[in-house]
Structures are given as structure tokens and as C-alpha cells.
């Protein structure tokens, strides 16, 4: 175990302002692990349909996938502080509208419209990564550690978020998870935006700049992989909630999902301590292969008759390949994104994930209702597809700019 002086994570937080922006960003990001579970549990409890719940969350995620890159482009052009607060406030109104519509037994279309209004949610994780890229622009090794830390933070959010949302929805009332998440999100976003000491400078590029995707085959390939990876995440969440409900342990669904995130968090932190010995483009397919192999464990466990305890163990193991895969993928995104478009490039990556999560949520909702435990074939198939896409795109991913993490300008 490295000493405090030699610990790369300790060196990160020795940077002026790093602790402050990280703390408030964590408060803004924790709800990201609550909104999906909270919406599924609220809608399924009030309307009695996992298909509807999955479709509503899928619609919101798809809308976010469309709006997210435009919000990020505004961040690159006008700065994080000026865009984050109004974007977060509008998204919060969508969440509040969803709770009211569900509670008032409004028509189903209002649920879709309300959740779609959350599409302006700013990519707080991407903005935090952009701050690290700015602070560590001359130190690629430290940037690798920072990316690993940020992925671990994502996993903590998806480890604690589902547990907290499940507890609130089952202990108080179905909308408690969404309401609490909204309050935390707005508070964290406002206080994060106030940390101007570490905010990256705005881009001098005109607002109508070219998309970083244009002519960028490597970035397009990563987005395709992230769509498949998102389908793994989205379907796994909904199928697990449905499986736990069928087992008579609905309240335990959040804890079971949290174990998957716990395995990923631990693996991500360990991965950040290692200095990469090969290019990210070479590591990425290997990480995806491990993720595809481990994604079979939940399917094999449940179809063999295993209950929640065995499923929890399978998800813990399966999660250990997630963070290394995402860290390496984000390293590639940073290396392939043109200068002045870092927020947009990373948001495009998240857009791919959200689009996949949307498709996975809808497909997983149908699968768990009609196939039961065999619904875990959806996340297993999605992870296999991610590996196939990356393998087919190996040449595009190994281009000159993808060989290492390029420090942000």
C-alpha cells in the first residue's frame, strides 16, 4: 500500500480547490444513481407496469442523449458556471412534474413528457473530468489516476444511489426517492458551479463549431461501443428490480444493484494506482472481453435457480470489469477529442451510454415481464455486442491520437 506521500490519489487532492469542486460535484452526481431506480419504483408501484416504467425512463434518457451534446457545447462556449445552474433548474422542474403526474394519476403521455424535460441535466461528471484535464494538462499519468477516481465516484453514486432511492420509496412513499434526488441535484449543481477557482477557461471557438464526431472514426467507434455498454447498464438495472420483486424482496433491489457498483468502484480505484504499460487503444478490447465474460454470471446464476444472495455475488464479480473499461474508454475519448471541445466530446460519450441505457431499460422491462430470470440474457448480449464493435473498430481506435491520453488544451 503506497504511503500518503506517494499515493497518487493524495497528490490529486493536494491541488488547490480540488477537494471543494469534488465534494459538491459528488452531491450533484449521487442523484444520477437515484433517478432511474426512483422513477421505475414510483411508476411501477403506482401504475403496476414495469413495461411503462422502463419506457418512461428510456424516453427521458433518449431525450438527454439528444440534448446533452448541445448543453455541453454551451458549456464549452460560455463556461460551466453560466450554463450549469439554469440547465439544472429546468431539469429539476421535469422531475417535479413527473412526481405530480404520477401522484395525480395523469395520462401516461404526461409521464413521458415530464421525464423528457429532464434532458437539460448538465453532465456534472464530464465537467469534473474537464476540470481535472485542465489542472493536469501537463501530467498524463496523473490524469489517468484522476479518470480512475472519477469512474470510482460514478460507481459510488450507482452503489449508494439505488440503495437510498429504494429505501426512500419503500419506507415513505413512492415519489420520495425522486423528490430527494431532485433537491440534492440542484443543491450540488449550484455549489459546484460556484467553484470558479478550478473552472476551465471557455473556448475561443465560435458556437457553431464543427462537432468533434465529424471525420473522427475513432470517436464514432467509441460511441458505438458505449451505446452497447449503456444497454448493459440499463437492462441490468430494470431486470434486477423485476427479478427481486418476483422473489418477494423488492426492497432489496437497490442493495443488490449497489453490490455491482461496489465491485466496479473497488476495481476502478485499484486500476488508477497502476501506471498503464500499454496504449489505451490496446487495453480497451481486453477490458471489454473481461466485461463480456463476467456479464454471463447473472444469467447463469438466475437460470440455474439461484436466488438473490447468489445473484448479488454474481453482480459483485461482474462489476469488477466495468470501471477499468470505462476509465480506458474515457482516456480514449479525451485523446480523440479536438481542442476546445472537451466537454462536448465527453458528453457525446455519455450520450452514447444514455442512448444505450434507454434501449436497455425498455428492452429489459419487457424481458423481465415476459421471460423472468432469462431477461439477464439482454445485458449479456449487450456486453458481447460492445466487444464485437470494438474488435471490428480496432484500426480506428488505434489511430495516432488514440495512442495516449492527450493533455487538454
TrEMBL record:
Name listed for the protein in its UniProt record: MFS transporter
Pfam families per record: MFS_1
Give TM segment ranges: 21-44, 50-71, 83-106, 172-194, 218-244, 250-272, 284-304, 310-333, 345-367, 373-392
InterPro entries according to UniProt? MFS, MFS_trans_sf
> Keywords, A to Z?
Membrane, Transmembrane, Transmembrane helix
Q: Name one GO molecular function term.
A: transmembrane transporter activity
Species of provenance = Streptomyces cinnamoneus (Streptoverticillium cinnamoneum)
